[in-house]
Hints:
Layout: H1 3-7, H2 11-17, H3 24-44, E1 49-50, E2 60-61, E3 68-75, E4 79-88, E5 95-103, E6 111-118, E7 122-129, H4 138-146, H5 149-156, E8 162-163, H6 169-174, E9 180-184, H7 189-214, H8 224-240, H9 245-252, H10 254-265, H11 267-277
Antiparallel strand pairs: 1-3, 2-3, 3-4, 4-5, 5-6, 6-7, 7-9, 8-9
Amino acid sequence: MSETASQTKTIHEFLAENPDVDVTDTHRQLYGILGEMKDRVMVEMPDLVQQPASEGLDYWITDSGNFEGSMHTWTGKHAEHVAHSWIGNRKASILDMNMQVFLSQETDVPHLVMVFGTIPQVFYYSELVARRDVRVDVDYLEKYYGAENEEFLKLRGHELFTWSVSHGTYMRALNSPNAHSYTAPLGKEAEAIPILREAALTRFETWLGWWKDGMKNPLPESERASLMERDHLLRRYGYELDPMNKISENMLGKERVQELLHVRVGTEQIRAAEAIAGIDTLSR
């Protein structure tokens, strides 16, 4: 198969080729990286409190034992929605591991999205979700994406990784100029994980520095409602339109997946914040 063809392979095709790989150790390593980021966020934003919707989801498993996961979500003054979760089957190739920080409207610093997965090839997706239209706001583009361009190209050109194209049109529309989306060959985990660890933590530290700088010059109150509206729509669509949801539906059923999606989206947090701001995106 050509490199171009492998870029557009579906997750279902990857899994069909290697459906029963034990990825327990890979899960331990990759989820550990995300856990380090989560712990650091909790230190930097000590007012974060767990959202009631995620209580009781520390660990769950289906009666059949075919699907399992964990989900924690928090809200605070500086971050509207922090999510740290995983879902899949550690004995059967498929895992989706996430760490996301959706900031409050005090700043327009990009949101942070980090995803590791196994299909069973190692998968890495990392995004700095723009809060402005970078096609016309070139100052915003240069401030965040221009500054990180060298680090982006360093990983983008690495010979070990193959670009992975999402089959979801919205997911491609969501991509910023510096989005990472890669797979590493099966059997190359020992080589790939240290490289991805360095790339992910470097991006995290860069993003954390941006947030600290942004807090020195908060946005005017007059700009925050419109930014909140945009933030919430991006957050919802990014979760709700993810093609990965179909795999979960096949294992858990659509109703259960919708329940978990409401927690991952932070629907109740959105509803409460918008009631105060006088906006409504949940009806769209």
